[in-house]
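queue> pop job 88
queue> type: inverse folding (structure -> sequence)
queue> payload:
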């Protein structure tokens, strides 16, 4: 029995432009290094309108995150104290996060990265310590799993909502973008109040 193709919402032209993919790469890199807002904000917005375009976007965000993670891995290997001091200057990163990740590394080795998704500790905190527990190849392999594990749930939920509400999104395309922004703002206010 042939399945009917899932019709996507009318993708805003803005999301079809190549710079959106470049923005995803840069955002993935930045969040893995010194930026403090996750690229999921962009990913979930695009996913509401286009599963296909967001699939490309998650791939370039992942590449950016792995590139940024590599930089932090090597900075942490070369000068661990300085790397930790720099990451501690990122808003909302605390010494307690470093203590918790150290315990995780000592207990689970590099696999603590894969167990960490959703614990609220930024990837960069793990990256600057990871060279003490694994070589770069193992770090990248585990990072790929850990980053996908982090990005995929939000992406899939946003894409499912985009498909489920496609007629409403087509009819009023700015409403989902406004709701999306409000949800991310509320989520970040809650997160920052929780960790402070």
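queue> result:
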């Amino acid at each position: 029995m042939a399945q009917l193709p899932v019709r996507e919402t009318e993708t805003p032209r803005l999301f079809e432009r190549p710079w959106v993919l470049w923005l995803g790469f840069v955002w993935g890199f930045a969040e893995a290094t010194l930026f403090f807002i996750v690229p999921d904000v962009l990913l979930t917005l695009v996913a509401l309108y286009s599963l296909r375009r967001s699939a490309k976007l998650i791939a370039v965000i992942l590449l950016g995150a792995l590139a940024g993670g590599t930089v932090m891995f090597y900075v942490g290997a070369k000068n661990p104290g300085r790397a930790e001091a720099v990451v501690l200057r990122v808003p909302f990163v605390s010494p307690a996060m470093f203590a918790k990740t150290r315990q995780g590394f000592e207990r689970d080795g590099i696999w603590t990265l894969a167990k960490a998704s959703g614990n609220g500790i930024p990837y960069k905190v793990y990256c600057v310590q990871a060279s003490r527990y694994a070589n770069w190849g193992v770090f990248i392999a585990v990072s790929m799993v850990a980053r996908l594990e982090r990005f995929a749930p939000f992406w899939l939920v946003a894409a499912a909502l985009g498909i489920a509400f496609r007629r409403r999104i087509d009819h009023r395309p700015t409403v989902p973008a406004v709701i999306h922004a409000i949800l991310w703002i509320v989520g970040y206010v809650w997160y920052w109040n929780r960790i402070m």
